[in-house]
Design goal:
globular, disordered N terminus, mainly alpha, binds zinc ion
Length: 265
Amino acid sequence: MRKTIIFPILAICLILLLPAFPAHSRGLLSTAMEVEIGKEVRDEVLTEYDLWEDEDDDALIQELAQTLVEYAQPREGIEYEFYLIESEEVNAFAAPGGFIFLTNGLLDFVDRDPAMIAGVMAHEIGHVSQRHHRDAIEKGLYHRLGFALFLEVLDIDEEWVEIGGAIALMLIEQGYSREDEYDADEQAVLTTYRAGWNPGEGIIEFLREIEKEYGSGNELGDIGRCIASHPDTDRRVYFAEIFLEEVVHSELFEPRPLPTYGQSD
Ligand SMILES: [Zn+2]
């Protein structure tokens, strides 16, 4: 059954529609503040969903996570945490600060294929490493508070953390910008490539599978917006493949094997 995350403050729903967040206000939100906001979101998600408790599934996710974090674009102050949550929805999403969630519905969808799961995880890590949450949170706080108060918020305060969390949840529900999705796809290709895994079997294969099953404009949850419909999946496959060509270029690339499902220590 689909569960919907309820925003603590509904009024915030309109905030991201407001234009003109001044350039000089960008990048002011500290990583520490982003992590605090991420914890708020993590707690909200874990209140709404039960953890999916399966030893083999968990072992695979944690093993993939360890390698992906090692090869992802580094970001100081971020300690990634990965959670499997119980939902039939084909879904994965990242909260600010490095808290990443995957559903058992997603594992079912890819038949627990380690390469595709790694691709999706690398995509979500990409949203964090490229700081995609920060702009939306800053914009939302700025419009709610005005510049003077916005500066004060940069000191961690419980109330603002809660508001920031509501903004981040809205971002997760409504989806990132087209540019951010391409960016996260590129990071997924790069990260898996650096890890020695074939990106063509990871995020690109996953996007193809999603398109095959659901096409565009599907009714998937967050990853429906994040992974499938926005931007169009075929365009994302196209751009990711071009990027893959650039990354691999003329080098001889011999991928090493991924962890095998059900055989993790
Ligand atoms: Zn995404």
